[in-house]
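debug: dumping io for the single-chain case to check the tokenizer round-trip. Nothing else runs in this session.
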Amino acid sequence: MTPIALVIVSTASSPLSSEEFRYGWDQLHRMLPAPTVWQEMPEPASPQAWSQALERASAAAPLEENARVLLLRHGHVMAGPDVLDRLGRALDGVQGTPTAVHAFDPGFPPALAPDYCTVRGMERYLEQLGTSELPLLADSGQHVPLVTLTTVAAVHAGTVRSHARWVPGAFVHDFASYHQARREDMLPLLPAGVARMLDVGGGEGGFLQAVKELRGSETHLAEYSEEACRTARTQVDHVWQGDFLTQPFAGLPNQGDGAFDCISFLDVLEHANDPQAWLARARSLLAPGGSVLISIPNVGHWGVVADLIEGRWDYCPLGIHCVTHVRFFTWKTLQDLLATAGFQVEHLERVQVPAPEDWARHWAQSPRLKADPESWNTYAFLVRATPLQEGSWA
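debug: decoded output
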């Protein structure tokens, strides 16, 4: 494969705005270490922005017209170990004059749909893709690629997508929406009569925006990330930036005690060193009859079990193995946490991502194991819980 001389990446989506994004950014740089040159551009990706970035890079170190350039729409990308090799071989081997080749992504997957939830799971998926003898797919212009391999000449001429092709065996994961999720799957768990809602650690406020649209509730966001809060202020009634445990909620009666009808922790408690303290704070902030909504990943999911059997536990920017997770839960340990914090489960839903049938049969037949298929098929728990009476748990 011809070496990649230059990487042009848009940093408009702030790849260093959170620990998760920073971890992903570092992984991305390890994928293409020196002497590959990285040229960041603060504006969103576009042919004009690519051309300007190329001019800046060429001013520092002139590039041949046939030099390879990797274009990244943003820096929130997880790539498998051989994706760049596949793109390079495809660009080297295409007959005629191809301008570029693209990697598929979850928003525009190849014929084999994605089925992974861990880094190793993604590698297994890529191994399946690699065995598929599928032809390159012409770029119809209907989907904007996340990762493109092209040449200096094509960038200069503005013809990157003129005769581009998608490479079926090349696939990258896009996690740019990590702080933006609306979590509409949690809306059915909302209790009746939510006049004032607090979402803790809710990123840019997507879930609260969905709640506002559905119920008309007064929305409050408690979020540590200053950058996420800046965006959230455009769509949330009240944004409280900083540490949830010490947030004074200035301006609310009794500094927020008893002020909220519902408080949500959506994929948040696993990031807390002391999730019991977070639930205790929530209990004090709930109005009489209030409840908490919790979404939490299941460390007993088959994807994790399979990884461990293979000797793998790979941290990554998101998912069950997110690098900022410090606590891990099964249904039993989540029940224990809630009971210790003085809550009772009122409603439970399980997000199902079932194990492959042959794996499930094998585990179910393993001697001396009390196999629990319901557990290994559960990717996450969605819970609504209400406070117990003081005397029943203190």
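debug: round-trip ok. The mean pLDDT is 92.
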